[in-house]
Amino acid sequence: MKKEVTVIYKGTKKGDNLICTIRExxxxxxxxxxxxxxxxxxxxxxxxxxxxxxxPAPGQEVRTKISEFGNSxxxxxxxxxxxxxxxxxxxxxxEDLFSETLDYVKENYNITYE
Length: 114
Hints:
By secondary structure, the chain is α+β, with helices and mostly antiparallel strands. The chain has a single domain (3-113), classed as Bacterial toxin RNase RnlA/LsoA, N repeated domain (Double Stranded RNA Binding Domain, 2-Layer Sandwich), CATH 3.30.160.690. Helix content is 23%, strand content 45%. The protein contains two helices and seven strands; from the N terminus they run ββαββββαβ. It has helices at 27-38, 95-108; strands spanning 3-10, 18-22, 44-54, 62-70, 76-82, 87-92, 109-113. The protein has a seven-stranded mixed beta sheet with strand order 3-4-5-6-2-1-7. Strand 3 (44-54) and strand 4 (62-70) form a beta hairpin. The longest helix is centred in the C-terminal third of the chain and has 14 residues, at 95-108. The protein starts with a strand and ends with a strand.
């Protein structure tokens, strides 16, 4: 049985960043998604998965894991997984990689759109 996930999709006009957020996600699932696009022709890994910590306000700490890929046209897609919420965000101008990522999610998960 496929896992249920909630997707918040903000498609914008051509040339702008495409943004998608997936809730109820674990890091291993995020890594599986990026493995699927790494195998596409012309895709380059710009940033392999790495940890980052941000402080949006005094006394607050947000821990994330990020990864970034580029397509053959030099456009990018960035993945950010938030440890505290189990949320995956991906955004960028690489429409082909964005579409491939959404296709992977549609094939492997039951999606509820928000």
